[in-house]
Design goal:
With 240 residues, the chain is α/β, with parallel strands linked by helices. It is built from eleven helices and four strands. It has a four-stranded parallel β-sheet with strand order 3-2-1-4, sandwiched between helices.
Length: 240
């Protein structure tokens, strides 16, 4: 979708966060160092005030993005905690239940979810998710990992629109312009893992993508079909 009024989007998301946290003590958010979490964190601070937002930095060992994560929390002035998830993830991996590299990578996202809810439960807060519409539509997130959240403030914005909103609200250029990555392994990028660039993905998801070849459109359709289970509650067997 083009032609969004980003100032109106900003207001609507802030109002949404205020409404959903009513009666609670604020919100906790995982700060990855990427543009999505930077946008959600900044809007959460605008909505709730910096003292009511906790940033959780969860690198896997010596992760390069930690510098950008620190940039976000220091710029916003929010309380934050840094937890190296490597020991936690490796403890689970060491049980022998996780036989593939992807299963072990998803452990990292699920370890982060556990920590976010640990803080949220302790503080009487909501967990703010950072998923955008592009990722939700094709299931590009870990079920019960980064998909395990209470609310999705930017869940109706395609990735290209998140970039536009980020520029509008003044997220630092180096965060906006760097290659998106879930940080699940060294050198991993979103576009490389998905096999499609966000510009093309968003065009296809919005009913366009005429300049994309048929195989790419089929690939996106396959991702959407394969990930349907992520966008609904677990099915219940009806016995009456």
């Amino acid at each position: 979708m083009t032609g969004l009024d980003y100032e109106e989007v900003r207001k609507r998301i802030c109002d949404f966060i205020i409404g959903k946290t009513e009666g609670l003590d604020g919100a906790v958010i995982g700060i990855s160092g990427g543009v999505d979490s930077a946008v959600v964190a900044q809007l959460a601070v605008e909505a709730l005030g910096r003292d009511n937002v906790i940033g959780l930095l969860m690198p896997y060992g010596a992760q390069k993005d930690i510098a950008h994560s620190l940039m976000v929390v220091e710029r916003l002035g929010i309380p934050h905690v840094t937890v190296d998830i490597r020991p936690l993830a490796e403890t689970f991996a060491g049980t022998g239940c996780f036989g593939s590299d992807m299963a072990k990578a998803n452990l990292r996202a699920r370890a982060r979810m556990l920590l976010l809810y640990g803080v949220a439960n302790s503080k009487g807060m909501l967990v703010l998710g950072t998923g955008n519409k592009s990722e939700i539509e094709v299931g590009y997130y870990t079920k019960y990992g980064d998909g395990g959240v209470d609310i999705l403030p930017i869940g109706d914005l395609y990735k290209t629109e998140v970039w536009g909103l980020a520029r509008h609200i003044g997220v630092p250029k180096e965060i906006v312009e760097k290659a998106p990555s879930a940080g699940l392994w060294e050198g991993q990028t979103d576009e490389g893992e998905m096999g499609v660039k966000y510009n093309d993905l968003d065009a296809i998801l919005q009913g366009g993508g005429d300049g994309c070849d048929a195989k790419l459109r089929e690939h996106v359709a396959f991702m959407r079909k394969r990930s349907e289970h992520k966008r609904s509650l677990p099915p219940i067997a009806k016995v009456r």
